[in-house]
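User: I'm designing a mutation panel for Oligopeptide ABC transporter substrate-binding protein and want to avoid disrupting the core. Could you give me a predicted structure to guide residue selection? Please restate the sequence first so the numbering is unambiguous.

Assistant: Good idea. Sequence first, for numbering, then the predicted structure tokens:
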Amino acid sequence: MKKKGLLLIMFAAFILVLAACTTSTGNEGSDGENSGSDSEAEATEENGSGGEKVLRMNNGEEPTSLNPPIGFDSVSWNVLNNLMEGLTRLGKDDTPQPAIAEDWEVSEDGKTYTFHLRDDANWSNGDPVTAEHFVYAWKQLLNPETGSSAAFLGYFIEGGEAYNSGDGSAEDVAVKAVDEKTFEVTLSAPTGYFLHVVTNPAFFPVNKEVAEDNPEWHSEADSFVSNGPFKLESWQHDQEMVFAKNEEYWDKDTVNLDKVHWAMVSEVNTEYQMFESDELDVTEIPSSMADQLIDGDNVVIEEQAGLYFYRFNVTQEPFQNQKIRKAFALAINQEDIVNYVTKNKEEAAKAFVSPGFTAPSGEDFRDVNGDLVNFDPEEAKQLLEEGMEEEGYDELPPVTLTYNTDDQHKAIAETMQNMFSENLGVDVELANTEWNVFLEDQKSLNMQFSRSSFIFDYGDPVNFLESFITDSSMNRTGWSNEEYDELISQAKQETDEQKRWETMYEAEKILAEEMPIFPIHYYNQVYIYKDYVKDIVRHPVGYLELKWADIQQ
């Protein structure tokens, strides 16, 4: 078994790269199935005969959107990160490398970045990639009418938050095209990890001329233009996408694959069957087969910066009470869940920020702040009694735990249901809904108690912690704490790194004390590859990288 540990990035110039969005696990939402197309059969023949190199993968479901500011989830990232490219791109070592920008300068105060775009950076239709395309795309990201879930990432930019919140205008956003190939951005405060931030697909450029001519340019293969390693050759919605090598890409000589065929199969069991019948070259491991497959020779386990967790809605009974929230959290044995339910060698989460973030001291954030949420059924019972007494409950109001439709989410929810019964004497109802409905209900605070996930968007612990400030679009709990908000504000502006990290340690402890959420496990990535598949890179942030991938038979 191959094991690739999470790569830690030293603080010499950058902070650890780890990047996140809400994920449905990449498997929910699509009913599309693939029983093996003619194109897949041809791909097998071509790879075996020394013809075209064709990689066959599964994306799980239809991308939410291929418009960069909208496709803010894992199934969209898989596609966008290989069709397009931003100013910087994560290298094989997970650090930001020059991409569309061949170099840049940073002002003495650390706030203004001047990026110089490559002369040979073109779109797949032959148009040059210009600085104006970045100005157009980044303002679209922040435009409140766009409704982008990723807009908060643009708050680093001077004027970005004001524009997105309706208190400013597009003209106030500090991005400009100095000339055709020079792009300048001014930040509201020095941000040492900004080069990591702009690797996120939300910051990819948009061809302004194409978009203004056809606002739906991103919806079909024949209108889609890319500036990355591949172009979109065909797209059968909910069934299959086909990439072809982009001959207009500035670094095309690095790209080994001729094509990538993406199936859209939502069930991992079906995906594995397709892998076994040579219809796919890569597969996840079904939970039901983890015991027999996890230690196989072709299994690759890579850590991922993210958290599987549950949210309490503090605006609904009984979770307005802090002690009742903590009781439910401490009644869950995370170790049992990873050992006997998920079984993919995940690490049980005893706090919120995942391992892999290196502090100025050289220590890991997780080691410094330690375990904050430990299984303790006796304390859980005591907290439940105290909480019920505070609220005047003779009987606990009914509790419904909601998860989005998926076999593994169901298994975890059923295990938790049993733990609540055994450790608290509380009967919890279960409910499930499809991903799109689930996500909207969670955002609207329509659910009492629901599962969640977070994959880091950029390389700093504050990325997770900022999600739970008051009124954040990522909060989805109704929880608000002025001290917490102030600590996160300090963490995003403090230039003394040691002080900045101290504020983040304090903020995480407040989360554990007030418990609007509670953790289950940190994420990892587990896949089986065919012997001939080489050099697929999966960054800890969740970006899949096929730029260097190869088929060697």
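For picking mutation sites, this is relevant: Residues 407-424 form the longest helix (18 residues). The CA atoms of residues 327 and 382 lie 8 Å apart.
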